[in-house]
Fold:
Amino acid sequence: MVVSLATLEGLDLNNLFGLSPLDPGQQGELHDHVEELAAKHGLTCREEAIGWLDAEATFDEGWFCSPILRTEFDYLTALHEIGHLVLDLDTEDADGAILHSNEVEAWKWAIEEARITPSEAARDQIMVAFQTHGDDVGPTSEELDRLRAALADTGAGPTRLDREKSEDTPPEQPEDPPAG
Ligand SMILES: [Zn+2]
Structure:
């Protein structure tokens, strides 16, 4: 599905799927996580009153700009921008064409680092953001499938906070199959 911006006129592009506002506690927690990730990677976070279409990251200056966290999608957008910088993956090539495979990787990074499991509405919003990024050639069906697969594999919420700590330990070996 390709969504043209013309058909979206009059809709709130920043919240197409009616995401509920974050409660203040959650908003603070997610804000802290964005700051934490930024500090960990030596980046400066500028949280501003913008929509996701204006979110951006600069490679040479090490800062990124993301929307004020009102919904989980705003949070995921901030993580997506950090992902671009951490993975060193630009949004556009030298001719200004969108590098959709880089977009997939930055979204995957965001989803993996996120302390929340994105709701279905947030996943839908990510797919729309991905497909309406730039007005030239859209993503290939393979790229769409890769992002869909990443979104389908978002893990379970409560255990996600522990993932970082366990990264250093080797994965558990599967038990030997019973003989015979
Ligand atoms: Zn991007």
The pocket of zinc ion is lined by residues 80, 84, 91, 103, 106 (CB under 6 Å).
